[in-house]
Amino acid sequence: MSDGVQDNTRTIEKTVVTDFADRMSYGGYLDLGTLLSAQRPLSDPEHHDELLFIIQHQTTELWLKLVLHELAAACRLLREDRLAPALKCVARVKHIQKTLTEQWSVLATLTPAEYAQFRGVLGNASGFQSAQYRAVEFTLGNKNAGMLRVFADDAPALALVTAALEAPSLYDEFLRLLARSGYAVPAGILERDVTTAWTFVPELVPLFASIYEDPEKHWTAYEACEELVDLEDNFQLWRFRHLKTIERIIGFKTGTGGSSGVPFLQRALQLTFFPELFAVRTEIG
User: Fold this and answer.
1) What is the DSSP letter of 257?
2) What are residue 5's DSSP bridge partners?
3) How far is residue 182 from each of residues 147, 179, 185, 207, 223, measured CA to CA in Å?
4) Does 45 sit behind a cis peptide bond, omega within 30 degrees of 0 on the bond before it?
5) For the purposes of burial, counting CB atoms within 10 Å of the CB of 78, is it exposed (0-12), middle (13-18) or buried (19 or more)?
6) Rounded distance, CA 143 to CA 146, Å?
7) Rounded to 5°, angle at Cα 233 from 231 and 239
8) pLDDT of 83 strictly over 90
9) Mapping DSSP to helix (H, G, I), strand (E, B) and coil, where does residue 233 land?
10) How many CB atoms sit inside 10 A of residue 52's CB?
11) How far apart are CA 233 and CA 228, in angstroms?
């Protein structure tokens, strides 16, 4: 017997709070009553695996909420010329991205036969309709005003996505910070229409080449560039893992939301956030 453990039972210390009649509890703080009652399978009789499907997507939405929180802070800090704390927010997003990518392995345990037994209850519900996911894409610069139509019947979602569409992206804010720091960022970039998707600007490549060719002199900017590259790398890995999970479960069926399914997801891999930071690699050395 070790101190405090007898018969494989740990003694509850006297100082441990057990009376929550007038105290905040763990469940109360997290509002677990609401959170854990939000999983409502629609299959009848209830299919065993529908709970997995619901929790997979609900947890993704919770992580996306935190990603948006961190990206909003990063954009604000960049506007305030506080690059170091902005990169701290980006670093947290990178860790969340890894968690989101790993989550696909859980959904991948759902076999085609199992999913087919309850897929019909989804109707036209699809991850394509995730307002938070779309807001993340927009905040990173991959904007598409046509997507707003998807949220026309959901006022809060429309407001969220519209705000992300109309705000400068993380990349816009970074380039503006570089300009204020004395780097030769073309004026047209600083005055661009931020509601449009970022497209490759060849004039930026020499600027980034000068940063990469002398990291010690430009260490702060150099570090920030690499953090952004990590961010895009992680996002593309998430997209690819999503694609392969969907292909594994439904093959080449059309999506519940009306898309072509896997071919539609494949095209997303061609989308980019910070193309100049990848193009500059060809010029180095």
Assistant:
1) T
2) 10
3) 36, 5, 9, 11, 17
4) yes
5) buried
6) 9
7) 105
8) yes
9) helix
10) 17
11) 9
Reported as type and span, the H/E element at residue 76 is helix 50-79
- pLDDT of 3 > 90? The answer is no
pTM more than 0.70:
yes
pLDDT interval class at 285 (50, 70, 90): confident
Instruction: Tell me phi and psi for residue 5, to 5 degrees.
Output: -130, 125
Say if residue 210 is exposed, middle or buried (CB neighbours under 10 Å; 0-12, 13-18, 19+): middle
With H, G, I as helix, E, B as strand and everything else as coil, classify residue 126. Answer: coil
Distance CA(38)–CA(59), nearest Å, equals 11
Categorize the per-residue pLDDT at 19 as very low, low, confident or very high, splitting at 50, 70 and 90.
very high
Instruction: Read off the DSSP letter of residue 184.
Output: -
Phi, psi torsion values for 83, nearest 5 degrees: -65, -45
pLDDT tens-place string over residues 88-109: 999 999 999 999 999 999 999 9
Nearest to 214 by CA among 203, 225, 204: 225
The pLDDT, as a whole number, for residue 2 is 66
Across 253-273, average pLDDT? 93
Q: Residue 120: count other Cβ atoms within 10 Å of its Cβ.
A: 10
